[in-house]
Design goal:
Nucleotidyltransferase, domain 5, extended, single chain, alpha+beta, Gyrase A, domain 2, six-stranded mixed beta sheet, 7 helices, five-stranded antiparallel beta sheet
Length: 344
């Protein structure tokens, strides 16, 4: 039994060392190391090889030719990266207290919901340090790619024989930033020595690392368990805070100006435009458009009624008009573009 627990601890400790080495050495390896870099443009591709930090184009053409192009590369690097177009990358500069620098990634994870229009689970993300603006503040560039965009491009690459380990977000003035699709392991991207030398390599690594760090890693193991409990509580608190902020934003929006009209004013205009035999069950305003859902005795007449108002332009049915179960009313969903001149 004791031997089993020692083996489990040893495996966990080896994984921790690998992750620690990856976190510290990966930026240096990516900057000066080797990688295959793929760009997907519509139905075409451009393939690059980075060696010694120098990027060289090696192939391009229709996506159907990607797999043959990969096979034609002699001794390709193991690290494969998928470059994301700049227009699909969201960059947000945030100012953070200098005190959080040692645990900056964890702190930024809780800031994504507040600093971007996405939740953390909806994006691939990373960060880069911009500058230290004061003795107690840091400027940090938050780099975000929606998962829908990243997964779509990655799936297109995989379907043609290219399996990327990370997305590469390019900034003209700074080195590229990687947004990992898988948990990075630096060891998997290096070329290992020939098999006869591996036993000697493993023995040397164990002799150098095992004894000095075993006690420290044991303390880290128990610390990680405590941190996991605290992180769970912090996530719960963050969720409550986000829900409260959204409620406050909704209340504020109801009184905000939108194309010269408040949301309440737009609702009032819709009520005036619709006939008395119609009533609404849903009303939303977003990005200059309004969506109305409800029931009416004659839904076909509502398009003309809304078009006659100066507030609504180009009203259309979003879905087919349906007959209510057990009644004479017709269910409708209509969207229209809002006027920029406000209500009459």
């Amino acid at each position: 039994m004791i031997q089993r627990y020692l083996m489990l601890f040893f495996r966990w400790w080896i994984r921790q060392l690998a992750e620690l080495a990856s976190a510290r050495l990966l930026p240096l390896y990516v900057k000066a190391g080797e990688a295959v870099v793929l760009e997907i443009i519509d139905n075409g591709f451009v393939l690059h090889i980075r060696r010694g930090g120098v990027l060289t184009r090696v192939a391009g053409g229709d996506l159907a030719g990607l797999a043959p192009a990969m096979e034609a590369i002699v001794d390709p690097p193991r690290l494969k990266l998928l470059r994301i177009p700049a227009q699909q990358v969201l960059r947000k500069r945030v100012s953070m207290p200098l005190a959080v620098r040692r645990d900056l990634k964890t702190v930024l994870a809780f800031e994504i919901d507040r600093e971007t229009p996405f939740e953390q689970a909806e994006v691939f993300w990373n960060y880069s340090l911009a500058s230290q603006v004061a003795r107690d503040r840091l400027d940090v560039d938050l780099i975000v790619v929606p998962r829908r965009t990243g997964d779509g491009l990655a799936q297109a690459a995989r379907s043609h024989g290219f399996t990327p380990a990370a997305l590469e977000a390019v900034n003209d003035s700074r080195p590229p930033t990687l947004l990992w699709l898988e948990t990075p392991n630096l060891l998997s991207y290096f070329r290992l020595p020939p098999r006869p030398y591996m036993t000697a390599v493993y023995g040397a690594v164990a002799a150098l690392l095992l004894l000095p760090f075993a006690a420290q890693q044991a303390r880290l193991y128990f610390a990680d368990r405590s941190i996991a409990v605290l992180e769970s509580q912090a996530h719960a608190a963050s969720a409550l805070n986000l829900a409260a902020n959204r409620r406050m934003s909704a209340l504020a929006f109801m009184g905000q100006a939108h194309h010269g009209d408040s949301a309440l004013g737009i609702l009032a205009s819709a009520t005036r435009a619709l006939p008395d035999d119609s009533f609404l069950t849903s009303f939303t305003v977003h990005d200059g458009r309004v969506t109305l859902a409800g029931s009416s005795e004659a839904a076909a007449k509502l398009i003309g009624a809304l078009a006659a108002s100066r507030v609504f332009h180009d009203p259309v049915f979003d879905t087919a008009v349906l007959q209510s179960d057990g009644g004479d009313l017709e269910q409708f969903t209509i969207s229209a573009r809002l006027s920029r001149t406000g209500t009459p």
